[in-house]
Amino acid sequence: MTLILSHLSRVFALQSSDRLVTRLNTGQDPTPFDPLANKTIVYLARDAIVAMSYTGPAYIGQLTTDDWIVQNLTGIDVTEAFGTRTGILPRLFDIGRALNFLLQELSSSEIAQQNINFELVAVGWQWRLARRAPVGRFQPVPMAWGISKTESGAFEQKVERLPRHWHWRNRDFFNAAPAANFDKSQQTKMFDEIRADIGTNRPQAGQDMADRFERATADAIAAASASNGFVGPNCMSVVLPPPHQSTSVRVTFFPQQEHTAQLVSKKFAPMTYPAAYTPWIVGPAIMHKPSVFVGKGGWDFTLGAFVVKLNGPDGPDHGLLAAMSSQRRPVRPTV
């Protein structure tokens, strides 16, 4: 289980997700299995850029569910030994085809036979495939898509999506998945706090507004984890501004407490630094596996015409500049 909070507006798209994977034992409360599991993918399709996260079973076959999703989206064997892979992908979909293909594959996967709910939520920006300036009807629009399965039922037959021009009549869109992990009172509390913050210190730009919502969703996930054993306190957040205004996608890891990683070498004694984590980053010519990194300032990854900016932890001001390693993923438990 998990908690995914997604928010869309005309000035930003945001998705925040916790990182906890739990184990269920009959008659007992859920116990943590992997507190730092990746559940998020930044995906550049032919006609969209999105953040997508899932809630539900953490494994399909021997692959973690995020690895399984990426393998199906790209046609690349993700068990190959790479941290970052460059080159043309065997599969590159437009976003509609990508989600429909995932629904098709999920419907024939082991999850379809399990009595457990599953949701995949994708939010971001979609544009028309035309060689025109991104203005008027060719301007990218904020969009959301969803694949879902109830605990006792089958997958929905169609990918759910917002109407293309939903934002003409609505200022924003908010979604919590699964809804049971973030009830109406929790939503009301979060939005009341956002309104109070805006009322006392009005945002100066869309980025400032995105910052407020990002912090609020991360705090809301941490607060939910205090009373819900299925939700973890560590959060991964992705902010996507309108592509016709900015091509910088921001990824931030919000930990409950400082996380560290140890740099090991034969040439010097092990050194410990503050650490952060990355999601999957997937596009036409690049695949980057979920990783742990250290170093002040963060990293930038080129993703087509976009730059994915990985916000880093506070690191040393001198000496080590940065280091990164693919995140080790635990093997699927046998029982």
Task: Summarize the model shown.
The strands form five sheets. Strands 9-19-18-5-6-10-11-12 form an eight-stranded mixed sheet, with helices on one face. A seven-stranded mixed sheet has the order 13-1-2-14-15-22-21, with helices on one face. The protein has a four-stranded antiparallel sheet with strand order 16-17-20-23, with no helix packed on it. Helix content is 18%, strand content 34%. The model has no long low-confidence stretch (mean pLDDT 90).
Tag the structure with descriptive keywords.
eight-stranded mixed sheet, seven-stranded mixed sheet, 23 strands, 335 residues, 18% helix, alpha+beta
What topology does this entry show?
Blueprint: E1 4-9, E2 13-18, E3 21-23, E4 31-34, E5 40-44, E6 48-55, E7 59-60, E8 63-64, H1 65-74, E9 84-86, H2 95-107, E10 118-126, E11 141-149, E12 160-161, E13 172-177, H3 184-200, H4 206-225, E14 235-240, E15 248-254, E16 260-263, E17 271-277, E18 280-283, E19 286-288, E20 291-294, E21 299-303, E22 306-310, E23 323-326
- The CATH class assignment is Alpha Beta
Main sheet overview = 8 strands, mixed
CATH architecture: 4-Layer Sandwich
* Estimated radius of gyration: 19 Å
Q: What's the CATH H-level homologous superfamily?
A: Aminohydrolase, N-terminal nucleophile (Ntn) domain
- The helicity comes to 10-25%
Q: Secondary-structure element order, as H and E?
A: EEEEEEEEHEHEEEEHHEEEEEEEEEE
DSSP helical segment count: 4
Q: Structural class of the helix and strand makeup?
A: alpha+beta
Q: Label the overall shape.
A: globular
Q: First CA to last CA: what distance?
A: 17 Å
CATH topology: Glutamine Phosphoribosylpyrophosphate, subunit 1, domain 1
* Number of β-strand runs: 23
Could you name the ranges where pLDDT drops below 50 across 5 or more consecutive residues?
Answer: none
Write down the overall mean pLDDT.
90
Strand content: 25-35%
> What topology, given as strand order, has the largest sheet?
9-19-18-5-6-10-11-12
